Amino acid sequence: MTIPSILCYAFIAVVSIQVTYYLSFIFAFSIKRAETRLKKHMPVSIIICAKNEAENLKKNIPLILNQEYSNFEIVLVNDSSFDDTLEIMKAFEAENNNIKLVDVKVNEAFWGNKKYALTLGIKVSKHDFLVFTDADCTPNSKKWLEQISSNFSNEKSIVLGYGAYAKKKFSFFNKLIRFETVMTALQYFSYASMGSPYMGVGRNMAYRKDLFFNNCGFNSHMSLKSGDDDLFINEVANTSNTSLCFTKESFTVSEPKTTFKAWILQKRRHISTANFYKLNHKVLLGVFYMTQLLFWIFGISLLIIGFSWPLIVSLIGLRFVIQWLCFGFTAKKFEETDLIILMPILELFLITTQLSIFIANMISKPKHWK
Predict the structure, then answer these.
(1) What's 237's domain CATH number?
(2) 155 backbone dihedrals φ, ψ, rounded to 5°
(3) Count of other CB atoms within 10 angstroms of residue 23
(4) In this structure, are residues 245 and 193 in contact, taking their beta carbons and an 8 Å threshold?
């Protein structure tokens, strides 16, 4: 058997795996409609951990205080900021009796560790239902808190939401950031819908306080600088205790990174935690990424040498059509339809960027959460 023939068979296998993944995603999440649940308005504590976020706090805290919700407190955690973050927090606390402040001093044992700061915030919160977001996150509506909290029940102690990034006109880099965000959400919502939740995003998620303390909080991965959201969810989430919230009113919107270097550092922190996921999640996510990469390598190679090009073009077309359907339904759900037509180009840029990040993380690991 010739090398081109072996390459062709390998490409068929890769396309088959990719098609299987995307068909699973389509039926698990992409075509799934968001459910509007009954308003519950149970007492909720919103936890916001901030490091050098004075301007974002001034912008977003009033929007959170303005939520159409009857009973909530905001726990503001200052993680050793050196700008005006603490002063801004104190000003909000003085004017609002439902705001509580936690000032985290520099701690040598937990220096640069967001999990330590979050743990202190969780400890002082007075309600059992905790909602997490970041200082740079803007609620998409006044019903954000209502939508997220309505997914709690006697069985559901975790709520996974969607954290979008703001759109910037005429910016390919911005589209790449938003494409990666949609693809990540497509995967974690799909896996959760199939009964195997593996992560959430700290920009928009919720869980019960007793779930946190019954599982010893972040204790098993406290030494890792990142993973306060995805590693904790990977550890405690299961089929029965996890609910999904993806109504448009429930989104949060963050300002994306403005430089490629800053975004790469952020992605390096996020990707560094994946090695600590459960084995089945590592295998499934690893196979998905590797087949994405090999699809482009094998496909382009076979087209260049002209081996069985009608078959190769047909396989490429099949994979792209199914991927477009899956991504298109999801992008529409997340109000990211401008990304659909650019999907192949964005995917190629993303997987090559991810490859460079994997290589960089093998050489050295990111040391701080911010």
Answers:
(1) 3.90.550.10
(2) -90, -35
(3) 14
(4) no
How far apart CA 65 and CA 307 sit, in angstroms, is: 62
What tokens does 208 get? 């019960």
Cα–Cα distance measured from residue 238 to residue 254, given in angstroms and rounded to the nearest whole number: 28
Matching residue, tokens 């939520």: 67
Cα angle 150-152-153, degrees, rounded to a multiple of 5 = 115
Instruction: Please check whether residue 104 lies inside any domain of the structure.
Output: yes
Element (H, E) at 46: strand 44-50
For residue 332, being part of any structural domain is answered with no
CA distance 299 to 144: 43
In a domain? residue 53 = yes
pLDDT tens string for the chain (370 positions)? 788 899 999 999 999 999 999 999 999 999 998 877 777 789 999 999 999 999 999 999 999 999 999 999 999 999 988 999 999 999 999 999 999 999 998 664 455 578 889 999 999 999 999 999 999 999 999 999 999 999 999 999 999 999 999 999 999 999 999 999 999 999 999 999 999 999 999 999 999 999 999 998 888 887 777 778 899 999 999 999 999 999 999 999 999 988 988 888 878 777 778 888 999 999 999 999 999 999 999 999 999 998 888 999 999 999 999 999 999 999 999 999 999 999 999 999 999 999 888 887 676 655 554 5
The number of distinct structural domains making up the chain is: 1
Structure tokens at 229: 């959201």
Task: Supply the range of the domain harboring residue 159.
Answer: 44-171+196-257
The whole-model pTM stands at: 0.92
- What tokens were used for 365? 């690991």
> Dihedral angle at the C-alpha atoms of 346, 338, 180, 7, nearest 10 degrees?
-40
Q: Decide if 289 is inside a domain.
A: no
The kind and range of the H/E element at 291 are helix 279-305
Closest CA to 196 of 321, 81, 282: 282
